[in-house]
Amino acid sequence: MKKILETPRLFLRELETADASFFFALNANPNVIRYTGNTTFTSIEEARLFLENYSDYQENGYGRWAVILKDSGRFLGWCGLKFDAETQQTDIGFRFFEEDWGKGYATESAQACLKVGFETFQLKEIVGRAMKANIASIRVLEKVGLHYVEDMVLDQQEAVLYKIMQ
């Protein structure tokens, strides 16, 4: 296990193929993926193959990281940074099991990811994208210091772009 960072309640580590059942279950909830543009995995094996081929850590040094609750070791979801070669931007993203919404885990892990992005990876700016209807994610982006830049279209839906600079 490669631990990336730690917060008071959480630690973040690289995603592993052993996370496939959690990853499958996370994306199986239509409420969780409602504003993501993603579809569900068809099987745990498909989720495992996705994780096996996830190359962001090797290509960029960072990526989406598993968020683990310290006191129980429970997989809560993921949070992290993703470099988009097309836009040449790094974005912050997060996804948690629905039963863990509203507990501050997204804010806590996103703050830690921004810090590691600026301090460890020397990023100059990090963006956040969210569907306009995804008020909860927009609130998290604002709480961790990102500022509204513009409206945009994402997966054929109205969305917003936020950013923070070092």
Description of the structure:
This protein is α+β, with helices and mostly antiparallel strands and 166 residues long. It is 31% helix and 34% strand. The protein has six helices and eight strands; from the N terminus they run ββααααβββαβαββ. The chain has helices at residues 20-28, 30-33, 44-52, 56-60, 105-119, 135-143, and strands at residues 3-6, 10-14, 64-69, 75-84, 89-96, 125-131, 147-154, 157-165. The strands form two sheets. It has a five-stranded antiparallel β-sheet, sandwiched between helices. A hairpin with a 2-residue loop joins β7 (147-154) and β8 (157-165). α1 crosses α3 (44-52). The longest helix is centred in the last third of the chain and has 15 residues, at 105-119. It is globular and about 40 Å long. The model has no long low-confidence stretch (mean pLDDT 93).
Could you report the average pLDDT, rounded to the nearest whole number? 93
Distance between the termini: 29 Å
Low-pLDDT residue intervals, each spanning 5 or more residues:
none
State the helix count: 6
> Biggest β-sheet: count, sense, barrel?
5 strands, antiparallel
Helix and strand content put the structural class at alpha+beta
Shape: globular
The tally of strands reads 8
Supply Rg.
15 Å
Query: What proportion of the residues form beta strands (DSSP E)?
Result: 25-35%
Order of helices and strands: EEHHHHEEEHEHEE
- Helix amount: 25-40%
Strand order of the largest sheet: 1-2-3-4-5
Write the layout of secondary structure elements.
Elements: E1 3-6, E2 10-14, H1 20-28, H2 30-33, H3 44-52, H4 56-60, E3 64-69, E4 75-84, E5 89-96, H5 105-119, E6 125-131, H6 135-143, E7 147-154, E8 157-165
